[in-house]
Amino acid sequence: MSRLSYTYRGLIVPVFTTFNSDGSLNLDIISQYATYLAKKGIKGILVNGTSGEGTSLSVAERKLITETWVKAVKETKQHLMIQVGGAPLPDVIELAKHASSMQVDSILCLPELYFKPTTPKELIEYLKIVGKAAPKTPLLYYHIPMLSNVNIHMGQFLESIDDKIPSFVGIKFTSANLEEGAQALRADNRKYVIFLGNDQLINAACALGMDSFIVTSINMFPEFVLNLLAAFKKGNILRAKDMQEKLSSIVNAITKHGNWVQTMKVAMTLLTDINVGLPRAPLKPISSEAVAIMTEDLTTLGA
Questions:
Q1: Residue 178, Cα to own-chain centre: how many angstroms?
Q2: Residues 6 or more apart from 88 whose CB is under 8 A from it?
Q3: How far apart are CA 196 and CA 188, in angstroms?
Q4: Is 172 a catalytic residue?
Q5: Is 142 in the active site?
Q6: Catalytic residue among 33, 63, 172, 265
């Protein structure tokens, strides 16, 4: 089988999973969520990733969320990527088959999180199984070593794939190691797409030649991130640098109050009309004092 082509480049927003106050899924708001992002110029959506608390959801819930986003993007014409990993392998296979049957645009997959791969060969074997479950859907690997504790070098991994996984097209690179990211970008004559997953290194990554990003802050600041990229592309390096510094200050003001998802969900509800609800256990809501400080800091920063 020949390798699948995958032409999407640019921004993808890792959306939050929206919950009601009783902890059940709030599927009704998803269409409004998709429309809000589309009107701001965001053309790509990632569902059930880290920001989407994918690993805290049941298989049935993940399927329901996917199906609801599939309906939503039919109206908004956004690229839809579904994260299928972070579960026992039979469930990952089931989720990959389901996403493929829904004709999503791409699937993203975490590594096995318990019997972790330690070599490129082991990771390739794992992704080969996932790829066989959805052979007609472009597959990307989700590299997030600070949470997965899988520290396989992405440059070496991409150099060693060859045509072992026909549906494999690239990675989400959530790391601050831009030397490794640059090697991944150059691997096999720039054969693969690299989506950087670090909100605070967009500008630096652009300087290395990266053009695609999956970052949580797009949820709250879609136009700001688009303008940052536009400034860099126009050669306005100082403006892009200043914008990156402002974005980094805002991200720090949000995330100093706890876990990434706990704090970002609060910021989303504070700064937009989309009420994404509280995080799901094992995560807990941040304190009302922390919310008050975050609100004040964001106002001071002009967010």
A1: 17
A2: none
A3: 18
A4: yes
A5: yes
A6: 172
